């Protein structure tokens, strides 16, 4: 198991918008100094919905594994 390292406070971030089933989602990816993706974000669903919770958990899990 590798140890987690803290990312810099200011880092490169790329945001894209995708559409799926007539709904728009904002996807964001944060990079470390070497240009590798180290975190993922997603928004665009109804606040408080089960789907929002699922997407939040999926992004956290993905970020931990990156």
Structural commentary:
With 66 residues, this protein is α+β, with helices and mostly antiparallel strands. It has one domain (13-65). 24% of the residues lie in helices and 36% in strands. β2 and β3 (37-43) form a beta hairpin. The radius of gyration is 13 Å and the shape is globular. The model has no long low-confidence stretch (mean pLDDT 86).
How would the blueprint of this fold be written?
Blueprint: E1 13-20, E2 23-31, E3 37-43, H1 50-65
Antiparallel strand pairs: 1-2, 2-3
Give me a quick take on this structure:
The chain is α+β, with helices and mostly antiparallel strands and 66 residues long. It has one domain (13-65).
Task: Tell how many strands the DSSP assignment holds.
Answer: 3
Largest sheet: 3 strands, antiparallel
Strand content: 35-45%
Encode the helix/strand succession as letters: EEEH
Poorly predicted runs = none
Give the overall silhouette.
Answer: globular
> Count of helical segments?
1
Which whole number gives the mean pLDDT?
86
Structural domain count: 1
Instruction: Trace the largest sheet across and list its strands.
Output: 1-2-3
Task: Measure the end-to-end span.
Answer: 13 Å
Structural class: alpha+beta
Assembly category: single chain
Rounded to the nearest angstrom, the radius of gyration is 13 Å
Approximate helicity band? 10-25%
